[in-house]
């Protein structure tokens, strides 16, 4: 991303996986040098570019410094990076719990403050209309609580009627995981409210059918907010020891997406039925320069709402085929961050339909918008 510090302009580099804790700012005059770190260019290619860019043959110190800083920081695919990566994966594998990564940032880390934080969202709870069928679960955003709190509130208020005596299967968008893979963990989730009860019995049932597409102790669980935000709400509603199975659903852009995981989830639903509750963690459109668009978007933009409504209409009709066909057009220029969990639910539970509870937009910056919704699912 561009450096936010006007006194230190350039390109800011950071590691979203957390292997490296370093943050670098590449000066403007060296940003184009990064194109040579592509796995194909040679050091001589970079040296030649530096000579032309600086109009000097004495570029050895600059070259060594750039390569050295990137390597030491873990930003090159080299032994330093692989060592950092392997150490981080090993550390997570040996942890007894999945820690509360976003406590103290996205929500308070003090238990009492955390409860008060969520209490405020329920101070004015609207009346939720009766469902048109049997409630099987909900979808809520994973945008920040600040931006999407009304949709969180309405969705989890609808879920509350399910009660605590269920296992909640969380199908969460995987922002960092492998495509067409499902990331799982056997660890309890730890938050300021306590530790969840992991549904490892159900995980064993899934593994028996779909082990080839599952990544156990997926390191992506560490930095993935989309599951953590929903776990916290489930603990708030049903107690800290609520039984959950968080599954990170990787993106899927194949034309005929089929996976043994859908069969495994269907078997789970058929065997356990009303003992399960399904919780989807999804956002919708991501539009504006922040997301690679040349055009700016404002909150409440009619273009976004019209496109979202087309897809929601298909979900409300239970027509996952039409929904997926639209998502597949040009690899989804609307960048729905939740299409894969939705597809997984509809493939696993035939006959499911969505009911919209609340729709919203949020300007994540002045020119970029995220849309989202609170929905419930019925059969």
What features would you describe in this structure?
With 379 residues, the chain is α/β, with parallel strands linked by helices. It has two domains: 11-91, no CATH class; 101-378, LigB-like (Protocatechuate 4,5-dioxygenase, Chain B, 3-Layer(aba) Sandwich). The chain is built from twelve helices and 14 strands. The strands form three sheets. Strands 3, 4, 5, 8, 9, 10, 11, 12, 13 and 14 form a ten-stranded mixed beta sheet that branches. A two-stranded antiparallel sheet has the order 1-2. Helix 6 crosses helix 9, helix 9 packs across helix 12 and helix 10 runs antiparallel to helix 11 (320-328).
CATH fold name of the largest domain, please? Protocatechuate 4,5-dioxygenase, Chain B
Instruction: Count every beta strand, where a strand is a DSSP E run of 2 or more residues.
Output: 14
Rounded radius of gyration (Å): 23 Å
* CATH class membership of the largest domain: Alpha Beta
Largest sheet: 10 strands, mixed
Number of domain modules: 2
Taking the alpha carbons of the first and last residues, their distance comes to 44 Å
Secondary structure class reads alpha/beta
């Amino acid at each position: 991303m561009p450096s936010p510090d006007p006194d230190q302009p350039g390109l800011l580099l950071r590691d979203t996986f957390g292997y490296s804790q370093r943050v670098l700012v590449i000066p403007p005059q060296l940003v184009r040098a990064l194109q040579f770190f592509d796995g194909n260019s040679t050091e001589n290619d970079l040296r030649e570019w530096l000579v032309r860019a600086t109009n000097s043959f004495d570029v050895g110190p600059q070259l060594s410094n750039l390569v050295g800083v990137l390597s030491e920081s873990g930003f090159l695919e080299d032994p330093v990076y692989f060592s950092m990566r392997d150490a981080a994966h090993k550390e997570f594998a040996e942890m007894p719990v999945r820690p509360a990564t976003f406590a103290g940032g996205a929500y308070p880390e003090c238990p009492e403050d955390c409860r008060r934080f969520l209490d405020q969202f329920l101070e004015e709870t609207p009346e939720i209309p009766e469902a048109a069928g049997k409630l099987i679960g909900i979808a809520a955003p994973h945008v920040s609580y600040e931006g999407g709190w009304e949709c969180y509130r309405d969705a989890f208020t609808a879920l509350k009627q399910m009660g605590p005596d269920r296992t909640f299967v969380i199908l969460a968008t995987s922002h960092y995981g492998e495509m067409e893979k499902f990331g799982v963990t056997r660890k309890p989730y730890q938050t300021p409210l306590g530790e969840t009860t992991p549904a490892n019995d159900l995980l064993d049932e899934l593994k028996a059918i779909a082990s080839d597409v599952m990544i156990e102790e997926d390191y992506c669980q560490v930095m993935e907010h989309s599951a953590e935000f929903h776990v916290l709400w489930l603990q708030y509603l049903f107690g800290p020891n609520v039984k959950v199975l968080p599954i990170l659903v990787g993106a899927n852009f194949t034309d005929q997406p089929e996976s043994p995981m859908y069969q495994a989830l269907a078997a789970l639903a058929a065997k356990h039925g009303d003992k399960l509750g399904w919780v989807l963690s999804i956002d919708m459109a991501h539009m504006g320069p922040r997301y690679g668009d040349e055009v700016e978007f404002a909150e409440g933009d009619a273009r976004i709402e019209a496109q979202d409504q087309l897809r929601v209409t298909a979900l409300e009709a239970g027509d996952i085929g039409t929904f997926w066909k639209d998502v597949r057009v040009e690899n989804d220029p609307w960048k729905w961050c939740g299409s894969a969990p939705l597809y997984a639910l509809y493939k696993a539970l035939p006959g499911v339909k969505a009911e919209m509870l609340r729709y919203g937009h949020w300007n994540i910056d002045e020119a970029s918008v995220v849309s989202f919704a609170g929905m419930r699912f019925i059969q």
